[in-house]
Amino acid sequence: MTTSTHAPTTATASTGPAATTGTTTSETTNLDPPAAPTTDTPTPVALEPLGRRFTALLTSTGLANLGDGVVQMGAPLVALTLTRSPGQLSLLAAATWLPWLLLGLVGGVVIDRTDRRNAQVLALAARGMLLAAGAALALTDQLSMVVLVLLVLAYGVTEVFADLAQTALVPDLVPRSRLQAANGRVLATQQVTNTFVGSPLAGGLLALGTGWVLGVPAAMAVIAVVVLLRGIPGRYRAERSEPTRASADVREGVRYVVHHPVLRPFVLAGGVMNMANTAYMAVFLLWAVGPGSQVGIRAEHYALLATLFALGAIGGSLLTERLVRRLPELGVMYVCWGVVAPMLLVPVLVPTVEAIGVVMVLLGATNTIGNTISMSLRQRVVPRHLLGRTSGAGRTIGYGLMPIGALLAGVIGEQVGIAPVLVGAAVVTALAASYPVFTVRRSTVRAAEAANPDLATA
C-alpha cells in the first residue's frame, strides 16, 4: 500500500547498467545498437529505451497498485461503518505502516540475498491469498474492527517485501541515464492506478459489499504475479563477493545510511515528514467526511476527490524529466517539499470541497516530482549490491515513524480535537523539509556519486 508521499515518503531485462557492471545476471542478451558515426554536425542524443522488461514491471506495478488503491481507500471507509472514534481509526492507519518499523531492516537484507523478481512474486502471491481469505470473512459477516486491523497489518507485511524488491529491481532493468524517467513512470503509474482508478473503484465496490473490496485486489495481485513471471525472464540477484551473516548485512545497511552525507538528511527529513503526514491523514477523514464533519463530503464523493491527487501526479511525472534538464534537480526537489506545509493548512483555513480539490492536484504534482528526484538520487549514490539493505534501513525510519504519527494523531484528536492535529502536522512538515536544504548541496551529491563504484565501472 505504499505510494510514497515525500521521501513521503518521506511512494520497478537488462538493457542498462546490469549488462556492464556484472552485479546482476540475466538470460536475455543485451542488444544495444551500434554507435552512430561521428560527424562534424552535432546530432541530437537519442534517449536509450527503457525496454520491454521494464514495461512488464510497470504493468505489474499498475495491477498491484490498483488493488492497493481499492484496499487503501476501502479499508478506512469500511472502518467508518464500524466506528467514528479517532483512536480506532488511527490504529488502522498505524497498522498499515507498523510492518516497516518491524521488518524494514530484515526485508532489505532478504532482498539483497535473494532474486529480486522472485521476492516480489512471492510477496504478491501471499497478498493475493491473504485478501482472498479476508473476502471470505466479509462474505460470512465475520469482519470486525479487530479483524480489519489485523488484515491491514498482514497486508503491510507483504508490502514491505514487494516494495523493496520493486525499488531494487528498477536500476537492473533500465539504463542509468533513464532512471529519472523510469522512476517517474513508476510513481505516476502508482498514483494513477492507486487513486485515480483504485479510489473511485473502492467506492463502487463498497456499494456492492465489503467482500468485493477485498476480492478484487486479490485478483489483481494474482495477475501481477503472472505478468512478472512471463515478462521479466532471467535472474536478478546481487552478486556477493563473499558470504556474510544476515546480522552483519543489517548493520552494514544501517551504518551506510547513518554515515552517508546524502542519505542521512533525506531519510531523517523524509521520516519526520511521513510521521506528520500520516498523523494528518489519520484524522482527515473525520474533518472532511460525513454530516458531522467540517467539510461534509459524502464517503463516495471523497473517493472521487482523491482522484484529483492522481491527476496532479500524472502532470508531475510528465514534468520531472524536463524540469531537471533545465533546472537544478536539488532546487526543484526542495521547492516541491517546501510547498507541502502551506498546502496542508488550506483545508483548515478554507474547509470547502473546491479548495481541497485544488490542494489535492498540487500535492499530487509536487509529491511526484520531489519523490522521483529523491528516489533517483538515492539509486545513483548507492552501490547496486547495497540497494536492498539501505532501502530497508531507510524505510524502517521513513515508514517506521508513520504508525507513531497515526497513534499520536488519535490521542491528540481525542483530547483536543482534529484541527490542532492538522495544524501541528503542517508545522512539523515545514521544519523537517528545511533540514536537507542546509545539509545537501550539489557538490555533496557529486562527491557521493564519485564514491559509488558502480559508476566508476559503468
Description:
GO terms for molecular function: transmembrane transporter activity. Residues 53-444 form the Major facilitator superfamily (MFS) profile domain. Residues 1-46 are annotated as: Disordered. Keywords: Cell membrane, Membrane, Transmembrane, Transmembrane helix. It is a single chain. By secondary structure, the chain is mainly α. The chain has helices at residues 18-21, 52-80, 86-113, 116-139, 145-173, 179-208, 210-231, 246-259, 263-288, 299-305, 307-326, 329-338, 340-349, 353-381, 387-398, 402-416, 418-439, 442-450, 453-457. It has one domain: MFS general substrate transporter like domains (Growth Hormone, Chain: A, Up-down Bundle), CATH 1.20.1250. It has 19 helices and no strands. Helix 4 (116-139) runs antiparallel to helix 5 (145-173). The protein is globular.
CATH architecture: Up-down Bundle
The biggest beta sheet reads: none
Which structural class best describes the helix and strand composition? mainly alpha
CATH fold-level label: Growth Hormone, Chain: A
Low-confidence sequence ranges: 1-42
Order of helices and strands: HHHHHHHHHHHHHHHHHHH
| Rg calculated over all Cα atoms | 21 Å
Total count of strands: 0
How many structural domains does the protein architecture include?
1
- Identify the CATH class: Mainly Alpha
Q: Count of helices?
A: 19
**What share of the residues does DSSP label as strand, in percent?**
under 5%
Helix content: over 70%
- Globally, the shape reads globular
In short:
With 458 residues, the protein is an all-alpha fold. It contains 19 helices and no strands. Helix 6 packs antiparallel against helix 10.
